[in-house]
Automatic annotation (TrEMBL):
This is DUF2924 domain-containing protein. InterPro entries: DUF2924. It comes from Bauldia litoralis. Pfam families: DUF2924 (PF11149).
Amino acid sequence: GTRLIREFNGVEHCVTVRGDDFEYLGKPYRSLSAIARAITGTNWNGWTFFGLKNQRGRP
């Protein structure tokens, strides 16, 4: 799938977009927000954190 790459605190984080979920560090996640929280330790809108404009498959 598509890879999303984000640098945070000098560390590059790669997320793979899969059919129904996302993969980060070999683990499945249901949302980008959960991944952003795992990376930062705080609540983030995942789409904003990764610099995306639209949610996949939603108008």
